[in-house]
Amino acid sequence: MKKYFLILLLLSAPNVFGQACCTAGTPLLSSLETSGTPFQSLQFGLSYRYNSIASIFINDSQLDDDSRERISKSLILQVDYGIWRDVSITALFSYILQERIILSPLGTENLLDTKGIGDALLLMKYNIIPLTILDEMEFSVGGGIKIPFGESQLISNGILIPADMQSGSGSWDYLGWFYFSKGRLFELPLSFVTNLSYRINGTNNRFDVEGFDYKFGNEGIAQLGLAYRTDFISDYSLFIRYRNAQSDISRGFQIPNTGGHWVYLVPGINFKLDNSKTIRLSGEIPLYIKVNGTQLTTTFTTTLAFYYSINL
Questions:
Q1: What Å distances lie between residue 184 and 22, 37, 147, 179, 281, CA to CA?
Q2: Burial 272-287 (b: 16+ CB within 10 A, else e)
């Protein structure tokens, strides 16, 4: 009876702060920014992502409230390999550490932290228009699955913790991916780059009760911008990223305070150590946020990544 009461509370309480800007675990879709990999080339990427989630919004209005904060730190290993002419595969593996702090009116802190292996992603990419030196244009599409390696039933003090604090979503998801780039704009070492990814989420019996399957809302990310290549050690990029998440669903009903729209400015700089090694530093600065109901959402994000490529 107690379990059913908690479920009903979660499904019906409109004043409870909803999940933050990310679903459970690591934001894998945001990591799908690289194009297809040439035949017999092997590329590794290791990134550290720090996401400060401390802004509280009601719809598109921010509240003056600093009583709660969530910090999400992710390690993502990306492996790309060109398995055939114009065909490559991408695998992403993750580890996530999260911390949530809530300040009571009396000044006491309620702290919850979790860590563990996150979900993984497997994607196949096909270069419809391979990149060449002559026109510097590339067009690729892909599709794949998200594998629920991460734990989705973590418990604290005998109570199932919120879905967005779990290491994984507990569901098999399906995704599509699109990438386009065009270089030498205006006869400059300037490229236009855009990519689009969309994830259709499956369901997870989060509450271990028949008929109470939980489904995170489907998620889409669109990004476009410019990248400037130099003859020196550093290259630069500036992108606009739009993210849309539909409301979560359980028992056919939308969960209050979940889903919304986000627009970010994404500046980045690449340091070219040599032809095979690159370090990238980037950030995400919210420009526009409109959430469903009341939600705790991203204040800023920074990512540090190292890429290494090998021709076999």
A1: 35, 21, 38, 17, 23
A2: eeeeeebebebebebe
Quick one: residue 28, left, alpha or beta (phi over 0 = left, psi -120 to 50 = alpha)?
alpha
Mean pLDDT, contiguous 10-residue spans, the chain (312 residues): 38 41 60 83 96 96 92 95 94 95 85 93 94 87 95 87 89 95 93 96 80 88 96 96 95 92 97 95 97 96 96 86
Q: How far apart are CA 261 and CA 139, in angstroms?
A: 27
One-letter amino acid for residue 74 of the chain: S
Where are the chain's structural domains? 2-311
Q: How many C-beta atoms surround the C-beta of residue 203 within 10 A?
A: 16
- Which class is domain 2-311? mainly beta
Q: Phi and psi of 187, rounded to 5°?
A: 60, 30
CA 227/CA 243 separation, integer angstroms? 21
Give the count of beta carbons closer than 10 Å to the beta carbon of residue 113: 12
Count CB-CB contacts under 10 A for residue 188: 10
pTM for the model: 0.88
Q: What's the rounded Cα separation, in Å, for the pair 273 and 133?
A: 22
| pLDDT value, residue 211 | 67
Cβ within 8 Å of residue 99, ≥6 positions away: 70, 71, 111, 112, 113
For residues 87 and 19, give the distance between their C-alpha atoms in angstroms, rounded to a whole number.
37
> What residues form DSSP beta bridges with 301?
51, 284
